Amino acid sequence: MPTRKPLIAGNWKMYKTVSEAFETADKLVQLVKDVDQAEVMIAPPFTALAPVFAAVQGTNVALGAQNLYWEAEGAYTGEISTSMLRSTGCTHVIIGHSERRQYFGETDESVNKKVKAAVAAGLIPVMCVGESEQERDDNKTFSVLDKQVKIGLEGLSLEDAATLVIAYEPIWAIGTGKTATKEQAQEVHRYLREWIEKNYSADLADAIRILYGGSVKPDNVTALMAQPDVDGALVGGASLDADTFSQIAKF
Ligand code: PGA
Question: Which end of the chain has fewer CB atoms within 10 angstroms, the N or the C?
Fold first, then answer.
């Protein structure tokens, strides 16, 4: 039997000032303090990482970032390195979110560099993959995912991949209120787990956490989490409110 502890992660995207972020995190910590069935993580914007850490430090809520740059330091105006993230108290980092791919030129190749940099720095990468509506309609879902994981994980050793988390986020389900059905999610999660088994090992496939993301809400999380290959959720809109997000964490 797999012993995967679910991960419920909140992606706050470009929302919340420092004080708003602190208040939400502070409230969330109280609401989920007895949650033991899942790990909880929140990823505020960069500006709120250090203040949110002050609220979550020593609690069961982990801190994640939404992006990173792979160079250690240098003349890269506007970018943030892994050691900068570590210095705020970050333990996780979301990489390759579809919004970054769509609006900020993120590619499978840059995702690969970022995943490697995260692993090298001891940060847990949450690598996002997912197909567009057109790709699904054209029956290209699995070939798109195959390319995303193949390039995204290229050169990553079995040892490097030990902490990896994959988030399956169908683009058509993000922020649209249109969730993948539990059957659609399960089918893709199984495919990804088998991909890991084929390309890494059965043990890693058994241990790796594959999150579902895309309009996860308190009223659909239970059915999704009941699927054998769904090991958690990456939550956008519904993670902004501490009450709502804590209900999801208590699925
Ligand atoms: P959503 O976003 O929950 O608002 O659909 C999910 C995500 O983008 O990670």
Answer: N
